[in-house]
Write a structure and sequence with these properties.
The protein is α/β, with parallel strands linked by helices. Helices cover 33% and strands 24% of the residues. It contains 16 helices and 21 strands. The protein is globular and about 80 Å long. Bound molecules: xanthosine-5'-monophosphate. Xanthosine-5'-monophosphate (XMP) binds next to loops. One of its GO terms (molecular function) is ATP binding.
Length: 518
């Protein structure tokens, strides 16, 4: 397994995912990890990741010096390379000018890291060239005495360096992003050939490990799970069912704000096909009743969250002998970030979890996805036999249609929105666009707009369509859907749904607009 030290870069988690894609377990820890903690984790090698700061400043983060004294291979990427150079006696030059984008590096010396890797050949020198992605300001100006410069570009003369005997490597570019064509092979060289890690991090193996861990933890006692139909809780349900069968009880709360047919699909998949014990609570009237007259988005979110907790608690109290609460917490929720530690957080994700359950219920937690990234959770889901469409479905917010009906929520609006959303999603699938977008949905606008039907003018509701492409949901671009597709969706919505006279397409990016409309 590999240890990845985070210096605050947005790319750190991506490195961890890439290493895991190779089939090797990796964890992200903050840069100020202690030697004892490293020994306890017992990695085969360490990756020093990137970061937004400058090693030319005294108070910027450094790797613990022991990292270079433990006899382990070390791979510094971007900031990681710079701090490695600086900590081992080299020099880093500060710069306010960023080099950002494609670059072609020339390989200048043999190194295990780039062995047999080449995108092009430099016809003058016969050296190999690699297409890479750069994103840096500072750069290494002088390598430490024992190091060799292994790659260069005209603007970055020390683009890679190594001390082969010690198995220390540094690259200024980003092997973890796909724009670096051979990036995955470079990581494989480090992780497999140089560190000698074994490839045993596979969905089947993860499932087997988790099943035995859950069995150890739970014994013959009972576990409760709030099943939402989302990817994470669905995978937890399938996994726990496999591990402990009838010792698992799921509670599925239908709050009346779900997508079309969603409740039935959840019951069909879990209760009917898999034989999972699922209690379905039809709480539409309760939720809509509590939401009546409330138009403020944050108040709506709170009402939906609190009502969920009430309903869930009430159901849970009816089940006897429950000792554990299962949750679909995933790895990005638990990574301790370097950004938070240096106090210079540049990515802030605050919102959204319902929360509050464990405290009120005094149950011990079962969190079998705690170590997994979303893409790994999905692969596990497929391996566990969940339907592909469920596992690869777009994310859906906890408050559901409650935040997609602007202002006051009414059943009439929710019913119209469900139909419009279903038409949009169906046509995205038909046109092969669903999986090219990261999230797509319809929004209900409670304004009356005019339409002409026959001889008369009719004032009816407006539906907005939203489709975005994003990697991390922190920034997003509106999807450039084909006009024909938008036309078809619009025609179908207006013709098939009574009460809608107009459809619009949202062309705002995030930031400043958010993905949801409320
Ligand atoms: P925004 O609208 O903030 O959305 O750009 C980013 C992502 O978060 C989802 N989202 C929510 N998820 N509860 C949730 O569980 C919420 O209150 C909530 N608000 C937004 C949104 O769907 C998108 O994927």
């Amino acid at each position: 397994k590999i240890l990845i030290l985070d210096f605050g870069s947005q790319y750190t988690q991506l490195i961890a995912r890439r290493v895991r894609e190779i089939g090797v377990y990796s964890e992200v820890r903050a840069f100020d990890i202690t030697e004892a903690e490293i020994r306890e984790y017992a990695p085969n090698g360490i990756i020093l990741a990137g970061g937004p700061e400058s090693v030319t400043e005294l108070d910027s983060p450094r790797a613990p010096q022991c990292v270079f004294e433990m006899g382990l291979p070390v791979f510094g990427i971007c900031y990681g390379m710079q701090t490695m150079a600086e900590q081992l006696g080299g020099q880093v030059a500060g710069s306010n000018v960023r080099e950002f984008g494609y670059a072609q590096i020339r390989l200048d010396a043999e190194t295990a890291l780039f062995k047999n890797i080449s995108d092009h050949i430099d016809h003058e020198t016969g050296n190999s060239l690699l297409d890479v992605w750069m994103s840096h300001g500072d750069k290494v100006a002088e390598v430490p005495a024992e190091f060799t410069v292994t790659a260069s570009t005209p603007s970055c003369p020390i683009a890679a360096m190594s001390w082969e005997e010690k198995r220390f490597f540094g690259v200024q570019f980003h092997p973890e992003v796909t724009h670096t064509l051979q990036g995955q092979r470079i990581l494989e060289h480090f992780v497999l050939d140089i560190c000698g890690s074994e490839r045993n991090w596979t969905p089947a193996q993860i499932i087997e490990d988790q099943i035995s861990r859950v069995r150890d933890q739970v014994g013959d006692r009972h576990v409760l799970l709030g099943l939402s139909g989302g990817v994470d809780s669905s995978v937890v349900a399938a996994l726990l069912h496999k591990a402990i069968g009838d010792q698992l009880t799921c509670v599925f709360v239908d709050n009346g704000l779900l997508r079309k047919a969603e409740g039935d699909q959840v019951m069909e998949t879990f209760a009917k096909h898999m034989g999972v014990r699922v209690i379905r609570v039809d709480a539409e009237d309760l939720f809509l009743g509590k939401l009546e007259g409330e138009a403020d988005p944050e108040a709506k979110r709170k009402i939906i969250g609190n009502t969920f907790i009430d309903v869930f608690d009430t159901e849970a109290a009816k089940i006897e002998g429950v000792d554990f609460l299962a949750q679909g917490t995933i790895y990005p929720d638990v990574i301790e970030s370097a950004a938070a530690k240096t106090g210079k957080a540049h990515v802030i994700k605050s919102h959204h979890n319902v929360g509050g359950l464990p405290e009120t219920m005094k149950l011990k937690l079962v969190e079998p996805l705690r170590e997994l990234f979303k893409d790994e959770v999905r692969k596990l889901g497929v391996e566990l036999g969940l339907p592909y469409d469920m596992v690869y479905r777009h994310p859906f917010p906890g408050p559901g249609l409650g935040v997609r009906i602007l202002g006051e929520v009414k059943k009439e609006y929710a019913d119209i929105l469900r139909e419009a959303d279903a038409i949009f999603i169906e046509e995205l699938h038909n046109a092969g666009w669903y999986h090219k977008t990261s999230q797509a949905f319809a929004v209900f606008l409670p304004v009356k707009s005019v339409g002409v039907v026959g001889d008369g003018r009719r004032y009816e509701w407006v539906i907005a369509l939203r489709a975005v492409e994003t990697i991390d949901f922190m920034t997003a671009r509106w999807a450039h859907l084909p006009y024909e597709l938008l036309e078809k969706v619009s025609n179908r919505i207006i013709n098939e749904i009574t009460g809608v006279s107009r459809v619009t397409y949202d062309v705002s990016s995030k930031p400043p607009a958010t993905i949801e409309w409320e």
